[in-house]
Design brief:
Immunoglobulin-like; five-stranded mixed sheet; 43 strands; 32% strand; cell junction; Cadherin_Y-type_LIR
Length: 775
Amino acid sequence: VTFCHSNAQTVRGNSKSLQTGSTALLRGLVEGQRILSRAKRGWVWNQMFVLEEFSGPDPILVGRLHTDLDVGSTPIKYVLAGEGAGTIFAINEITGDIHAMKRLDREEKAEYTLTAQVTNRDTDQPLEPPSEFIIKVQDINDNPPQFVEGPYRASVPEMSQVGTSVTRVTATDADDPVYGNSAKLVYSILEGQPYFSIDPNTAIIKIALHGMDREMREEYLVVIQAKDMGGHMGGLSGTTTVTVTLTDVNDNPPKFSKSMQNFVIPEELGIGKPGGKVKANDRDIGENAKSTYNIIDGDEKDVFEITTDAQTQEGILRLKKPLNFETKKSYTLKVEAANIRFDPNSGAPFKDTATVKIAVEDSDEPPIFSKPTFVLQVNENAPINTVIGTVTARDPDVTGSLVRYFIDRHTDLERQFNINVDDGKITLAKPLDRETDMWHNITVTATEIRNHSQISRAIVAIRVLDINDNAPEFATEYEAFLCENGKPGQVIQTVSAVDKDDPIQGHYFEYRLIPEMLNNPNFTIKNNGDNSISVLAKHDTFRRQKQEMYFLPIIVTDNGTPPMSSTNTLTIRVCGCSREGIVQSCNVEAYVLPIGLSMGALIAILACIILLLVIVVLFVTLRRHKNKPLIIKDDEDVRENIIRYDDEGGGEEDTEAFDIATLQNPDGINGYLPRKDIKPDLQFMPRQSGGPNGVDVDEFINVRLHEADNDPTAPPYDSIQIYGYEGRGSIAGSLSSLETASSDSDQNYDYLREWGPRFRRLGELYSVGESDKET
């Protein structure tokens, strides 16, 4: 097979790749312009076609296949196989011409490998072995440069030096970088001069102008162009934008808008409250614009302070001490604003000062007490209206209003004290008792007469001074125990005393027996020297059988002026003790009783008591059963049937028990309705038992009926009132005959038949004709 290509140098191929079965020889043939209708540059080299990529709808001839077997007599057919065969490339089976049917794009596929073979057209039998060749697509400049990562954003500090790098851009070209200049790019700036420049080869953007100030212009838009073909005429180009932002540096100091600022602050302004605001503006932003404020002059008494608001960057002037118009009416301060961050090497003064004049505005102030707290003293025996002390207050204003004084009664609920509203003298209103309250803390208010809303308060602590008005007494209720086998001189009890008074020199108590007991033969006392005494026994012959208890009166006197004394009695019980002196029993009965009861005797006594209780319970139970009336429930005794009817029932259709409670009158719920269906406690005369014994039965029944009507213990008990109500709001009214005044009523009951089938039977019973009335 011979491979032919237009405008090509023909080179003999490698004959080793061909088999000689069909006696074919690969050789180069030159086919001129007559073979190709539209020729482009191409050549054949080592079985390779090189074809430039092209665009257009018409097919283009790539080359021609030819074999020595094609002599005209042999029916041959050229067959093409491999990449793109039949789709991109088509072959003429007779002539062997290969055409490209579609647009070839090197950026999509740079080369195609195909196989050519000659077969018999009739039998499709191969006449030669297949031969492989390559079609390589040659690049042309058909792709412009592209900035894949654009548009770009970059930043650079303001005031940067010329040549400072800003950023780097990158463009790509899809054309073949090794063939020609289709992919050789050159960069240039279309917009952004004279501020910026770009290196044409490295695409690094740099500062081109000195002194670029962010405060003048913060953002720049730079247009960058990339052009292939080395920037020569006819090359393709692409553009992108770079937004360059100048970042702030601290190159501007803070500046007050006015060098003199004036404020008026009322003198009642509270501590820590803002009195004014100052602000120094800074053209920088962010951390470079933050400033701090300080008072550098004019505040010798440390009355003011200035703080910085982190949000607004304002200096807030606050009070550290209260203002007083009467003392000082104005202040002149020098305030400095300085940047927090600055470059010491810049040499610029990153601070500014301003003068702040403050005028104190006079306010109506409340009265001021001479002291915030007053401490007064008074004796507890002071008479009523005694002057305890005086509180004073004044109006600090220039006008000087008069002051009136009052006691806050919430602090003097007992109204123990009074105060003179004009001069502030506090007097006693009720007697005092130091032992009840040693201190009285009251609040006194001072109010201006001219303006009652101006009020101030002061605490007055009144101490009640003690006088000796309470006698000493025993510290507790003593009860001493004396052993029968005790020794003479034995300490029975140590006694101490207490006194509610509180003398300055302290307590000292004197103990003595009453005169009648000075020479008693049983007990004596001894002073212990610590405001206590010991009670001693004089002998050892104390016996419980002789005397069980002794009472020893003791007089206790204090050292007050005048001395106070009281008589206290010590109770001494004689007890039986063990050998070690431990009290065992103090009762005479315990000594008189002989040996204790045995366990058997105690069980017998307990059994007797239980038996006695059982007998009593049985007796009471029998008594209660006797009081119950005898009711004969023999259904055969016709004489007793009259007393067994104890339920009115619900009518002839009611075959079940009826709940009588549902018929009770609700109007009587809130009132008092005595019940008569409770068995009375009164006993009635017992009736005689036995039959009539020949007496007339009618008379016997009447006698029994009379007894039943008058016997309150005989059932059924009278409950007639609970049937006298049959509901409220009924158009029928009451149907009960119990409320009928007369049994011979002329009422017409014919309307009952109109109420329905439920009342038809009732209407028939109550309806009486003329013949029935006569009968």
